[in-house]
Design brief:
Layout lengths: L8 E7 L6 H9 L6 E7 L6 H6 L7 E4 L5 H11 L4 E4 L5 E2 L4 H8 L5 E9 L5 E4 L23 E4 L1 H6 L10 H11 L4 E12 L7 H18 L2 H16 L10 E5 L5 E6 L2 E9 L2 E6 L3 E6 L3
Parallel strand pairs: 1-2, 1-4, 2-3, 6-9
Antiparallel strand pairs: 4-8, 5-9, 6-7, 6-8, 10-11, 11-12, 12-13, 13-14
Length: 303
């Protein structure tokens, strides 16, 4: 492929034993209305029918690998090595573009920075969806990442040459290597731009969201913080993130009320000036409301 034919985007999909969800990922990539992109698929030698599900989309792929790997980031680095697009996005098995027009909308909005990112839609196991707004680019800094997971890689377009400058993902990390890379990019002075656009849909309950892996993830986070921050910087970063969160989606005004959801998505809390005011718990069709999270005040959907 001549340099003038270089695609604008490289969409990399890594997967393993994802037969139940890979179809949605494939449809969202293959269905993009903007055509100037290449699609790279790296399968970890799946044994559950994933490869067969992918076979129907092979003609749309620039590259397809199916072989054993050392984990998700090893597979992502394989895709990275093959990518020729100016910008790269990882849309892995079970993830999906939020709409068929996402790439076209990103191009129309303008690729004005080295990392251009938008929002993601979290899809909980019970089918509930939540649009999560990523932090504004004005809040991006090395220190801010000390207290925050960073930007969802499913919602970020990264200039390919950044990986040439700063290296690939750390394969020694199994869950948070993408977060570490945001720290490295920010420390290196890379530019970030935020789009008010839902870029991706992310299925909760995967490797980084399941309960049995949360302790491993927290251990990896502690290791990454030791690499890049002093204890004082970690404390300062956490305070900074809390302040930024208060201004999130408020136009710069301190919000009287704020909401938060649990990782499983079945509980929500409403806070007033940071004080827990109301807890809403949903189990199936049943919903209960508790004042201050302790005093039951209402139940609905009881059969």
């Amino acid at each position: 492929m001549a340099e003038r034919e270089r695609p604008l985007f490289s969409v990399v999909t890594v997967c393993k034993d994802a037969a139940g969800v890979i179809g949605g990922t494939c449809e969202s990539v293959a269905g993009q209305t903007f055509g100037n992109f290449e699609w790279i698929v790296v399968d970890g030698a799946s044994s559950d029918g994933t490869a067969e599900a992918l076979s129907g989309y092979r003609r749309r792929m620039a590259h397809f690998l199916s072989e054993p790997d050392g984990g998700a980031y090893h597979a992502m680095n394989k895709g990275l090595a093959l990518a020729r697009g100016e910008y790269l996005i990882f849309m892995n098995g079970g993830d999906a573009f939020a709409a068929d027009t996402v790439l076209a909308q990103v191009v129309a909005a303008g690729l004005s920075a080295e990392v251009v990112y938008g929002n993601e839609v979290k899809v909980y196991p019970d089918g509930e969806e939540e649009v999560c707004s990523s932090r504004p680019a004005e809040g991006i800094s090395r220190l801010a990442f000390a207290g925050h997971n960073g930007i969802p890689h499913q919602a970020a377009f990264i200039r390919r040459e950044l990986f040439d400058r700063f290296g690939p993902y750390d394969q020694g990390l199994r869950i948070v290597a993408d977060w570490e890379k945001w720290i490295v990019f920010a420390a290196g002075g890379c530019s970030f731009a935020k789009l008010e656009l839902a870029v991706s849909r992310f299925r909760m309950g995967g490797v980084s969201t399941s309960g049995e892996r949360r302790r491993e993830m927290e251990a990896e986070k502690r290791e990454v913080r030791r690499r890049h921050f002093t204890p004082a910087e970690v404390r300062k970063g956490r305070r900074l993130f809390k302040r930024l969160s208060r201004y999130r989606r408020t136009g710069g005004f301190f919000p009287l009320f704020s909401t938060e959801a649990t990782p499983t998505g079945n509980k929500r809390r409403i806070r007033f000036l940071g004080f827990p005011l109301l807890r809403i718990q949903t189990i199936g069709r049943r919903r209960s409301f508790s004042l201050f999270g302790l005093l039951p005040v209402w139940k609905s959907g009881i059969e």
